[in-house]
Recover the amino acids of this structure.
């Protein structure tokens, strides 16, 4: 899939394509840490999740039918619309 983005580098990953996170960030920018990473070169926001271990840190990301439930940034209380959560919005 390629997404037009006002002259910035096109997003060229295909569904189900596997890529190392380091290579992903080398190509598209963004933070190499954390679960939410806005691209530095496209209007996309990258989400990272670890369903097998996230619950140990308060994150319960999962699919519910066709909907992906993603915890966002913040482990206690209400989610604040800052940093990565703001990028998602």
């Amino acid at each position: 899939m390629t997404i037009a983005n006002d002259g910035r580098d096109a997003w060229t990953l295909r569904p189900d394509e596997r890529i190392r996170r380091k290579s992903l960030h080398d190509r598209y920018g963004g933070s190499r840490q954390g679960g939410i990473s806005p691209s530095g070169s496209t209007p996309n926001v990258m989400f990272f999740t670890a369903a097998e271990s996230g619950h140990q840190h308060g994150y319960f990301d999962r699919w519910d039918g066709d909907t992906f439930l993603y915890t966002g940034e913040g482990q206690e209380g209400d989610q604040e619309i800052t940093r990565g959560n703001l990028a998602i919005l």
Remarks:
- Residues 7 and 24 are 19 Å apart (CA to CA).
